[in-house]
C-alpha cells in the first residue's frame, strides 16, 4: 500500500484500535474472560503495529494527517510529528505491557468489563492527545481522558475510592474549563490554532501581547492540573486509591504526561519558544516547575505509603519535562523530551512493583518493606533499577535526562537549574535509598501482612512479574543504548532539531 | 403552485400522527401496535421532509389553494426542519420505550392517543407559517402535554399538571393578544407577510414592540424562562418517564422555537440590544439557578427537570450575540450553534429521562442518595445517564460542546465576555450535578453479568444519549447545510 | 420554590400585610399595562391596514362552496385551523378520560322533568340539524350544532342517565374521532387526487364541507356531552362494575 | 373607530382584570374563570377589529378566529375543571 493511502488513515486508525475494542468490551458478558482478553490484546498489538508504521513514516518525513470537519471552521486534526510519535509510542508500548499486568492483577475481581472498557478508552484518549494536530482536537481528547479516567479511579467502589475520584474530577474538570476558555480565546484571536513548529503567534502585533499572556495563564492552569504542577497537584496523591494498573499507566504515564505534553505543545508549537521567552512566560514556567520539583520531593520524603511516596515523586519528576520546555535552547529541550519517555518507563516499573508487593504480600507501606528483596527478588530488582534511575545513577535512563537538563541549563546560562537538579537528586536519594536498604538488607518479618500464593514457581503470578521486569530492562536499555538509532534520546534530538530548525 | 409530491412530507408529518391518534382512540385494544406503526411512518415522513429541504431548500405550501394572505401556510425552512427531525427521532425512541413502559391497560389506552396528538401538535407547531394556527397548535400541545403529565394519577402529578395547564393557558392567551395586535396593525396572520409589513411600516413600531412583548412573554412562560420556570420542575418530575422525556426534550423546545422564529423572522426590525440583553440576563439567571437547584435536588427526575430550566437558559444567551454580530459567517456559526445546542439537548434530555425512568422502575424510587445499587445493576442505563450527562455538561465530543465553543467564541469576539463567565459557572455546576449521580454508580454491589438487561427500554435511552454525544458532536457539519448557512472560518 | 400564583404563606399576620402590598403593586402595574395597551391599540386601529383581510375574504366567498363568510373562513380558507381545533377538543376529552372513570350520575328525574326532557331533547337535536344546515349561508355551523347536541346530552345526564344518553364506549370512541377522521381523510383524498391537502375543487366544495360539518357536529356533540360526564365510560373500568347505561 | 376603541378597550380591560384575578385568587375555580375572562378580553379585541362601520359587512376572519378560540378555551376549561375535581377527590381521600 502506498503512503498516500495510508497517511490520512493511520492516525485515526491508531485511535480506533483501542477505542473500538473498548466499546465492544463494555458489551462483553462479565464471565466471558477469554473474549475480553482477546479483544484487549488484539487492540494493544494492533495499535503497536500501527505505531511502528507511524514511526517509519515520520522518520521518512511523510506528512501523516487525518482531518475531519466536525463543524464549519472546527476541524479535528490528527497528525503525527516527531513529538507526537514519542508520546504515542510510549503510551502504546506501555499499554500492551500494562494490559497484561492488569489481566493478571484483576483476575477474579469484580466489574472487569467496565474496567477494561474504560481502560481502552483512556488509551484512546491519550493517543488522541498525542496525535492532536490543533488546539481544539487537543482539548477534546484532553477532556475525554478526564472522563475515561474517572471510572477507573472510582473502580474499587469504596468510599475512599469515590472520594478520590471526585477530587480528581473536580481538579481536572475545572482545569479543563480554563483550558477550554484559553483555547476559545486564542481561536477568536487568530482562527484555527494548528500546532506548527516554531509557533503560530509570532506575527501578532505587540498590542495583543497582554492577551497572549492571559491566554497562556489560562492554558497553563488547565494543563498544569494534569501535569500536577504545584499548587494544582492535590488530586494526584488522592487518586492513588485506584487499582495498581491504573496508577501505573494513568498516573505515571497517560494523565500526568498529557498535561506535560500539552505544556510542551503550547510552548513550542503554539507560542513558539522565542515568543514565549520574550513574553517572560518561560521564566514563570521554569520557576513553577522548579518549585514543583523540589516540593514534590520534599513531600515524598514524608510519605510512608509506598504509592503515596511514588505519587509525590511523580509530582516532582513530571515537572522535569516542563523545566526542559522552559529553558531556551535545544539541549534543554532534548532533556525535557527524553524525560517524557524515561520518567514513564521508570515510574511504571515502580508502580508495577508496588502493585506486586501489595497483591503478593499485602505490603502497602514503606515501613512494611523490610526484607521484601529476598522474598521477591526479581520484583525488587526491577524496583531497584527504577529507583536508581529516578535518582539519576548512570547508566539508567534517568541519568540521561538529568544530564541533558543540566547541560541545557548551562548552555542557556541558567545556572540555577543545576542547583534545582542537585537538590532534587539528593531528595530522590533520600526517599528511594531507604526503601532499597530495607528491601535488601533488613531481615524479613516472620509473617507478611497478607500473603497470597499463586502456585507458580516464581515469586508471584507471571502476569504480574514480567511487566515490571520488562520495563526495568527498558530503563536500562534506554540508558545504555541512548545513542542507538530510534532510541528515545535520538528521537528527542530529532524533535529538538526540528523545533529549532537545526 | 408547487408539486404536491414535493410538499407531501410537510402535510404528512402532521397528518400521520393525527391519524394514528384517531385509530389509537377508536381501537383501544390495539393502541400499542397503532402507536408503533404511526411512530415509524411519522419518523419516516420527517426524514423525507429533511431530505426534501436538504435538496431544495425551504418548502412552502399554502393550504387550500388560496392567496397566501387568506389561507394558512405550512413552511419548512432549515431551522424548522432541524427541529422536526430531532423531535421525530426522539419521539420514535420515546415510543419504543413507552411500548414496554406502561403495564396497565387503562394507562396504555390513555397514553397512546394523547401522545400521538402531542406529536402531531409538535410537528404542526414547527411547520406552521401562520400566527393564529400557531396558537391552536400551542393549545393542542399544552392540553395533550398536561393530560399526559397527569397520567401517573398521583396527587403531585395532578396538581403540578393542573398548574402547568393553567399557566400554559395564560401564556397562550397573552400570545394571542399579541397576534390580535398584529392583525389590527398589519391585517395579516401569515409570518412572511407580517415580516414584510413590519419592516415596511416603521411608524407602527410601538404596536409591533407591544405585540412582540406580549407574544414573547407568553411564550417565555411556556418555555419556562427564569423566573417563569416555577411550574416546570414539578410537572416534569412527576410525569411518567416517557412523558417527562417528551415534555423536557421537545415541548419546552417548541415554545423556545417559536420565540426564536418570532425574533428572527417576524420582529427582526423591532428587536434590539435592550430586549436581547434582558432575555439573556434572564437566561443567565436560569442557567445558574436551574443548575444550582439541580445540584440540590433530592430526586433524579427533579434534577433532570431543573437541568432543563438551565439548558433553556443557555439558548437565550445567543440573542444578544445575534444582535451584535453582523450578517456573515460568524452569525451563521452562531445560529447553527444555537440550533445544535437545542437539538443536542433534545436528544440528551430524552435519553436522560428514559434512563432515569428505568432506574425508578427498578429501584421503586428515584432518590439520588439511595440509587447506588440500582445504578450498578443496570450498566447500560447508567451508561446512558453518563452519556446524556456529558452532553448536558457540554463535554466533548457532544454537540453542546461545539455549541458552547462557538457561543464563547462569539461572546469574546463581540466583547460580551461576561456570558463566558456564566457559561463556565453553569458548566461547572452541571458537571457537579451529573457526577453527583454518577459517583453513586461505583460501589460494592455484585457485578452485573450483562451490559444490557432490558433492550426495549435501554436501547432507546442509549441510542438517544449516544446521538447527543457522538453523532452531533463529531458530525455537525450537515446542520449548517440544512440551515442553508455557509459558516466556515469566522 | 418561588411560586407567585400558588404559594402558601406561613406567617399569617405579616404575610397578609405583604400580600396586600404585593397586590397593590400588581394592581398598579396591571392598570398601567391596560392603559398602555389601550393607547397602542388605538394607534394600531388608526394607522393600521384598514380593510385587512375583509375585502379579500368576502370577494372569494362565491368560490368556497358556502355563502356564509364566517363558514367560508372556518371550513375553507382556514379549514386547517378548524381541523386542529377539533383535535384540541379530542385531546381534552382524552385527557378527561385518562383521569379516571366517570363519577356517579344524578338522581333519576321525576315525571315532570322527565316529560320536559323527552320533548326538549328531540327539539335540541332538530335545532342542531337546522344549525348545521343554516351554517352554509347564515350564522351557524358545526360548532353551534354540536353545542346544541352537547347541551342535549347535559340535560339527559341531569335528568338521571349517568351516560348522558351516549352509546357504549366503543361507539363513543368512533363518534369522537369521526370529525377529525372525516376531515383528515377528505384532506388527504384531495391531496391524493392532486388538488392539495384540504384544497376543495369549487364544484365539490359544498358537499365536502357539508360532509365534514356533519361528522364534526356529531363528534363535537359527543365530546361535549362526554366531557360533561367527566370520566371514562364506566363499563370498561374494572374499579367500577356498574353496567353502562344504555341509550334510551 | 370610537366604537371599535371602546369595545376593544373594554376587551383589554377584561384581559387585565382576568390576569389580576388569576394571580390574586387562590381557588381553582376562580383561576379558571379568570382565564376565561382573559380569553374573552382577547376575543373582544378581535371582534372589535372585525367591525367596519354599519355599512360594510364585518371582517369574517377575526370572527372565525374567535369561534375557534372559544372551542379551544372550552376544551381547556373542561380539562382544567376535571383535573381540579380529581385533585379534590384525592384530598378528600387523604
The total number of structural domains of chain C is 2
| Main interface by residue count | B-C, 68 and 62 residues
What is the domain tally of chain B? 3
Overall structural class of chain C, as computed from helix and strand content, comes to mainly alpha
Q: What is the string of helix and strand elements of chain C?
A: HHHHHHHH
User: In terms of structural class, how would the helical and strand content of chain B be classed?
Assistant: mainly alpha
Radius of gyration of chain C using CA atoms only = 24 Å
Could you tell me the number of beta strands of chain B?
Answer: 2
**What's the pLDDT, averaged over the residues of chain C?**
86
Beta-strand portion of chain C reads under 5%
Characteristics:
heterotetramer; A: 502 residues; mainly alpha; two-stranded antiparallel ribbon; 20 helices; 73% helix; globular; D: mainly alpha
Describe what this molecule looks like in 3D.
The complex is a heterotetramer of chains A (502), B (490), C (248) and D (94). By secondary structure, chain B is mostly helical. Chain B has 3 domains: 1-127; 129-271, no CATH class; 276-490, no CATH class. In chain B, 77% of the residues lie in helices and 2% in strands. In chain B, helix 4 (105-127) runs antiparallel to helix 5 (131-149), helix 10 (241-266) runs parallel beside helix 12 (300-324) and helix 12 packs antiparallel against helix 17 (418-438). Chain C has 2 domains: 12-48; 56-236, no CATH class. The radius of gyration of chain C is 24 Å and the shape is globular. Chain C starts with 11 loop residues before the first helix and ends in a 19-residue tail after the last helix. Helices cover 85% and strands 0% of the residues of chain D. The relative contact order of chain D is 0.13. The mean pLDDT of chain D is 91. Classes of the chains: A mainly alpha (502), B mainly alpha (490), C mainly alpha (248), D mainly alpha (94). Chains B and C meet through helix 1, helix 4, helix 5, helix 6 and helix 8 of B and helix 1, helix 2, helix 4 and helix 7 of C.
